[in-house]
Specification:
By secondary structure, this protein is an all-alpha fold. Helix content is 73%, strand content 0%. Helix 1 packs antiparallel against helix 2. The radius of gyration is 26 Å and the shape is rod-shaped. It starts with 5 loop residues before the first helix and ends in a 6-residue tail after the last helix. The model has no long low-confidence stretch (mean pLDDT 84).
Length: 104
Amino acid sequence: MTNVRPKSLDNSADALVELAGLLQAGRPELALSAKVAAPATHEHLARVTTEFATYAGNQFEDAVALIAALSTKLKTAVGAYHAVDARAQATLDSFLRNSTYQAP
């Protein structure tokens, strides 16, 4: 049996949400790649810079989405553990209430 602490999972989910928010707030500014454009730079350099900035921006958005999705999965797991704990507690409570001690 695994030793799972739902509170720890919940705190981890909150930390992931906070991380996703901080990353989104500090997201890369794709418009800055427009400053590297012809005639100030060579056309090839401008094109490659724009391609890289677009790729990096897409990867960044994917990472933020993944972190947010992981947080949601952790929150769901916390709810499942609470439900299982509640059912186990109810079963134990029922057993204790409805049983009678009989001396051997």
